[in-house]
Amino acid sequence: MRDGSGYQDVEHFLSAALTPIFNDIHMKNNIRISLILGGAVSVLALYLAFRNVPFDELLVYLASINYFWILPSVLVILISFALRAYRWKIILESTGEISFWGAFHPLMIGFMINCILPGRVGEVARPAVLQKKENIPFSTGLATVAAERFFDVSILIVLFAAMLATVQIDPDLDIVFGNYHLNRATLVAAGEGTFKLLLVLIVGIAMVGFSKTRNIINGLITRIPSMLFFAGPEFKKKILKRVCEPMVRFVDNFASGFTLVKYPTKICACIGLSFFIWGLAAFSYYLMALGCPGIELSFVEITAVMIIICFFIALPSVPGYWGIWEAGGVFALLLFGVSSKDAAGYTLANHAIQIFPVIIAGLISAMVTSVNVLQVSYEKRRK
Questions:
Q1: HSE (CB half, 13 Å, CA atoms) of 348?
Q2: Which of 27, 235, 331, 347 is deepest in the core (most CB within 10 A)?
Q3: Beta-carbon neighbour count of residue 154 at 10 Å?
């Protein structure tokens, strides 16, 4: 009589063979859904941004741009990303030594993935690359990405408050954008929402970044089995081993990414770099504006345009933020009296200048580090 081992071997073989296929199908379905949803938002945004702009006039405007200003604008963009990598290096050094290039390549790969794949998976891909190349735990790398984003959001809120205080926006100006009325009140509401998000980030960092609150969280996690009064001892042991202990390790690894809170000097350095990074980003917008007819705005006004675009691209869209970026840019420029045609032409050209160098630099980093972009983008999401 057969003991069934042969059938088990077949079952194991089929499982090993089919699991990657099912995972690949699942990954493709996620991409398809994200593209459909983001694409719908982007198409609507593109329509709303360009509906009043004759296509032939837009082409004439794009041809009239002095593209000489692309060179200094791209140079400033690349410098700002080098500073981003250096800032991330400072954050990562709280967990261990890492070189500038060890931070630069994962960062550029992550930003490049955000430009070519849906769902902002670049934020997940960055710590995945870091784990592969620098052997830093994924959860720790993810926490450092969150810390970096914390600095970005903080600076944007400060700049947004300064914009409202210094830039004159007609309180009676009301621009209909789809079903929304965009005006000064809308911008204030967006700023308040972002400020609340910042408060949530601060509370979250405090809870896992300091040992006392982290110990309380881990203590609650380890007590989960004891709350299952209806379960037997063996089941509780399994829950403790398979659920609670991995959760505690994740919290500890995640917390190690926030050890920056123990180093005031490094925090000050990151704050200073963050202001410089966003200043350079605004300067790249300003340089491009110098070559665009009809965009006669001051550096402060161009900075305000950049800030408004940043709020718009927080919405879901296709990879590269096409559509949403243009909608935010056209709306922002209309606030300063720029015509629809000039606003659309400048925003479209500047968008391309802002993201194509990032895509190229990210692809070069992927080749240098021999990283499979699709694999690192989705392998962590499947687990």
A1: 18
A2: 347
A3: 18
Confidence of residue 27 (pLDDT cuts 50, 70, 90): very low
Report pTM.
0.75
Please classify residue 213 by burial: count the beta carbons closer than 10 Å to its beta carbon, then call 0-12 exposed, 13-18 middle and 19+ buried: middle
DSSP for 148-190, written as a single string: HHHHHHHHHHHHHHHHHHHS---TT--EEETTEEESHHHHHHH
Both structure tokens of 291: 């070559």
User: DSSP readout, 51-72?
Assistant: TTS-HHHHHHHHHHS-GGGHHH
On whether the CB atoms of residues 173 and 184 are closer than 8 A, the answer is yes
Nearest in space to 302 (alpha carbons), one of 332, 326, 337, 344: 332
Amino acid at 383: K
Q: Are 16 and 23 spatial neighbours (Cβ–Cβ below 8 Å)? A: no
Distance (Å, whole) CA 353 – CA 68: 12
Name the token pair of 168. 């004159």
C-alpha–C-alpha distance, residues 118 and 353, integer Å: 20
Q: What DSSP character marks residue 291? A: T
Residue in the block written with tokens 């809870």:
207
Contact indicator for 74, 86 with CB cutoff of 8 Å: no
Mean pLDDT of 310-338: 78
The position carrying tokens 């933020």 is 321
**Chain segment 203-224, per-residue pLDDT in tens:** 777 777 677 788 888 888 888 8
Answer whether 83's CB lies under 8 Å from 91's CB.
Answer: no
Taking phi over 0 as left and psi of -120 to 50 as alpha, with beta for the rest, 294 belongs to left
Give the pLDDT of residue 224.
85
